[in-house]
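Quick one, probably user error.
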């Protein structure tokens, strides 16, 4: 049995313990309490003292593209989304297998070092599955599906099914499906994925309501997407706009019945928020990526007020500076009036719920998986633990996933 102790322990956003400790047996949390209580346990093999730090439930990143990690600082900031996609396509044009693999591996390391214990990654290629499967992270890897041509829906769906059947899930790896977005996936393909995913219990996520241009494209067939899609030869000749906003369009495809993870939802009306709420879908909010693209204020407060489950994502390093969920919390705490407790809930419990993992992770509780992190705190100039946690100088120093110590920064 291993004991991890620190000056503070936050077991969930509503409960913190001074001089707290967690006893870990195998992959699970065995006991939680003050160090005084925990040290009385027998058969302790090792005590790890994190010192002036707070032990937290492992952070959960519910949206990223780890295969874009190596594009950090190679993509110019732009508010023009299709221009950004062109830059990505151009930057990757000569990428070989080893480039994808090194990008994903680097992303995994950055996640682990920053206290992320669970990640939801989008697999644009098969490399994401093979590389992430070998990593110590807990992960849901969503196979990305893209094809706007309705005539291809059947073939693409069958090919996707075959690909998925070759991937073996395990204790740390869940497999999901990500029909990319309504401007890149036909209605027929959405419908086929929705039905298959419901029958097989496969988790689903999709990018939705990300830009105003997406709304114009779906409602009227205008703005940047038709030109962009023609340039990349992805615009079907006979394509007609459904005449619906993104959320209403998703509803028509049946995919909202899957309780999907909706990525972004940057532009949604109150009426669409009600529809999201009644569907039971979760939302992935990527604060710094949202800022990178210069979007208008995100409706995060309206989503939270409607009691929709909102978790945090970093998106990729092609539109962000780090893969740290703690950095997302700090960024949000400076710009929104969301309470620190709610920020931590979004980064832990809500993330676990969004990925269907709440029976395994998201809190430090006896019987759950031992997924935790330790954040080194600044000097004791502030007694409020949440203020210390969100201080610009706080930094993750320790990461444990399923009882496995994956990172421990050696300090002086
Ligand atoms: Zn994305």
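Nope, works fine. Designed sequence:
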């Amino acid at each position: 049995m291993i004991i991890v102790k620190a000056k503070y322990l936050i077991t969930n956003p509503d409960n913190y313990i001074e001089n707290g400790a967690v006893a870990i047996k195998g992959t699970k949390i065995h006991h939680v309490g003050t160090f005084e209580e925990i040290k009385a346990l027998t058969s302790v093999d090792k005590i790890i003292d994190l010192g002036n730090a707070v032990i937290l439930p492992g952070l959960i990143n519910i949206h990223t593209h780890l295969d874009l990690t190596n594009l950090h600082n190679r993509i110019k900031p732009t508010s023009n989304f299709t221009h950004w996609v062109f830059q990505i396509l151009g930057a990757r044009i000569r990428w070989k297998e080893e480039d994808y693999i090194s990008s994903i591996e680097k992303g995994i390391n950055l996640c682990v070092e920053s206290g992320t214990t669970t990640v939801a990654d989008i697999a644009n290629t098969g490399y994401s599955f093979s590389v992430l499967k070998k990593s110590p992270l807990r992960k849901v890897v969503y196979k990305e599906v893209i094809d706007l041509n309705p005539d291809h829906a059947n073939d693409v769906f069958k090919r996707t099914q075959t690909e998925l059947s070759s991937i073996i899930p395990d204790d740390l790896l869940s497999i999901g499906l990500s029909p990319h977005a309504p401007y890149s996936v036909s209605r027929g393909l959405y419908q086929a994925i929705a039905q298959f995913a419901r029958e097989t219990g496969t988790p689903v996520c999709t990018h939705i309501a990300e830009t105003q241009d997406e709304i114009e494209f779906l409602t009227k067939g205008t703005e940047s997407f038709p030109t962009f899609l023609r340039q990349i030869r992805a615009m079907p000749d006979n394509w007609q706009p459904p005449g619906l906003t993104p959320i209403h369009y998703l509803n028509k495809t049946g995919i909202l019945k899957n309780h999907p993870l909706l990525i972004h939802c940057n532009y949604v009306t109150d009426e669409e928020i009600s529809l999201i709420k009644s569907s039971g879908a979760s939302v992935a909010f990527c604060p710094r990526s949202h800022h990178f693209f210069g979007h208008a204020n995100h409706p995060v407060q309206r989503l939270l007020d409607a009691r929709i489950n909102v978790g945090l994502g970093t998106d990729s390093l092609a539109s962000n500076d780090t893969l740290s969920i703690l950095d997302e919390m700090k960024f949000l705490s400076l710009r929104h009036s969301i309470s620190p407790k709610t920020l931590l809930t979004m980064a832990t419990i809500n993330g676990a719920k969004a990925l269907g993992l709440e029976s395994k992770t998201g809190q430090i509780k006896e019987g759950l998986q031992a997924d935790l992190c330790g954040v080194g705190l600044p000097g004791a100039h502030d007694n409020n633990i949440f203020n210390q946690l969100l201080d610009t100088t706080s930094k993750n120093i320790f990461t444990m996933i399923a009882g496995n110590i994956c990172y421990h920064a050696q300090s002086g």
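The chain has two domains: 2-58+363-408, 59-354.
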